[in-house]
Amino acid sequence: MKTIHTEVAVIGAGTAGMTGYRAAKAGGKRTVLIESNVYGTTCARVGCMPSKLLISAAEAAHMLQAAPGFGVHPGQVRIDGKAVMARVRSERDRFVGFVVDSVDGYPAEDKIHGHARFLGPTRLQIDDHTVIEAERFVIATGSTPIVPDEWRAAGPRVITSDDVFYWDELPASVAVAGTGVIGLELGQALSRLGVRVTIFGRGERVAQLGDPEVLKVARKAMADALDVRFQTRVVEVAQEGEELVITSEDIAGMRRTERFSYLLSAIGRRPNVHKLGLENTGLERDHHGIPRYDKQTMQCGGSSIFIAGDADNERPQLPEAADQGRIAGDNAARFPAVQPGLRRTPLTIAFTEPQIATLGASYEELCVSHAGRFAIGKVSFENQGRSRVMLQNKGMLRVYAEFRSGRFLGAEMIGPRAEHVGHLLSWAVQAGLTVDAMLDMPFYHPVVEEGVRTALRDLAHHLANEPAHDRPCVDCTPAP
Ligand SMILES: Cc1cc2nc3c(=O)[nH]c(=O)nc-3n(C[C@H](O)[C@H](O)[C@H](O)COP(=O)(O)OP(=O)(O)OC[C@H]3O[C@@H](n4cnc5c(N)ncnc54)[C@H](O)[C@@H]3O)c2cc1C
């Protein structure tokens, strides 16, 4: 067994690990980057990029299907599944190529291949070939899709999002378990590409939404567009020939058995912290096994171990992985003189249609932090001018602000152009704008942002009419 001495060891060469590695090197430290799998990152290989490529193909198909609504009749639409998947894979490989080129640019002696496991707070073992003695560490091990054992036992037709992007052809049918961002994005895209899709949700969750009014609108929008069955669990899965026989059970106990080509398990992702030997580090961990860490410095307790990206399960998204990796790597280099890094306003986008965006403080967070002290404004996109023009007049935006200060706090929406509205509003939160200041900004015509203005005006009205708080708020709701 070889032994290597270094100052910083970064575990995982995904987005967080790569930014962590670069930040530690920029801090002047001898740094190694350890990766157990292929280079290329989850985002580029099986995450953000291929999923958006598949969604773009689905949008092209949908535009043709929606065209008759404008009096435009495109003729018979034919979807060439092989061509769709060929483009997804070749463009994906292009993006992966850029990442691999970056890693190729790192010095060979900095890169170690194999699975890392802590032997102690300053020692790692890599497979059975190397021991690394380091002063500081960055855990950037990402996450893995969850597949229950009883589903996995049904064989290779039970798949995860990772598998979809290696298909050569579109299948006839897919059952999707999970109504989170990944389940809805992939389920809707496949459905629009002509695959028979049923999406099962144990509860009534829709992507990352938590605001009950927006959720209600979102459930309807999704159910109008897709065969999505809320409060329905997959209870049995068995392979029969080239198909899976899937039994589901709804909340009333009604069972239904159907056949699908695949079951896509999109019930969540588990941070990769369980085969890391963390029990040998002395770190305090939460009930998921994740080390407790400071969200501003990414430092685990007072130790010289830092954590970043999906591994910490805080905000499992690419921009967060990059930011957290940078902070963790920078502080690993600075240790023990760590300092807070830039954590941005939360922003999450689901590329469903209608799109879904949440930003700033969520409704559920505000019910705890600002119970009775925040006002809500809203707009429905049903009669919003530009949304109707585009035949995309579905959805709702709810915006939140603090009584007295008028400070804008956050928003949740499903609706047209949510990816852009989400950015606009998250910038306002981060800039600390008040609702009045936001209303002083320019709004062109006719644009979806006029809908945002309607919601803000409604919010301003509620802010100006703060109810008397003669009773303590007991039920965790905003003020009436
Ligand atoms: C289908 C899908 C769609 C997505 N869409 C979006 C999107 O549109 N926008 C967005 O912002 N985010 C999206 N995400 C999320 C985003 O991809 C992740 O948040 C991000 O890639 C996480 O980066 P990371 O560096 O934490 O993990 P990863 O990129 O997964 O890197 C972790 C690395 O650590 C390695 N590793 C693990 N354990 C060890 C070990 N013990 N030793 C050595 N190496 C180890 C792994 O092999 C892996 O290479 C999507 C994710 C998925 C799955």
In short:
The radius of gyration is 24 Å and the shape is globular. By secondary structure, it is of the alpha/beta class.
Decide which structural class fits the backbone: alpha/beta
Query: What amount of the residues lies in strands?
Result: 25-35%
State the helix count: 14
The outline comes out as globular
Number of strands: 22
Low-confidence regions? none
Structural Rg: 24 Å
Small molecules in complex: flavin-adenine dinucleotide
Mean pLDDT: 97
What about the largest sheet? 7 strands, mixed
Helix content: 25-40%
- Taking the alpha carbons of the first and last residues, their distance comes to 67 Å
How would you portray this structure in words?
With 480 residues, this protein is an alpha/beta fold. Helices cover 33% and strands 25% of the residues. It has helices at 15-26, 42-46, 48-66, 81-104, 149-152, 161-164, 181-192, 212-225, 318-334, 363-369, 385-389, 418-430, 435-439, 449-464; strands at 2-11, 31-35, 111-113, 116-120, 123-126, 130-139, 143-145, 158-159, 173-177, 196-200, 227-229, 232-240, 243-250, 255-260, 262-265, 269-271, 305-307, 347-350, 355-360, 374-380, 396-402, 408-415. Strands 1, 2, 3, 4, 5, 6 and 17 form a seven-stranded mixed sheet that branches. A five-stranded parallel sheet has the order 8-15-9-10-11. Strands 18-19-22-21-20 form a five-stranded antiparallel sheet, with helices on both faces. A hairpin with a 5-residue loop joins strand 21 (396-402) and strand 22 (408-415). The longest helix is centred in the first third of the chain and has 24 residues, at 81-104. Residues 11-17, 34-37, 41-43, 47-48, 51, 115-116, 140-142, 161, 182, 272, 276, 309-311, 316-319, 321 line the site of flavin-adenine dinucleotide.
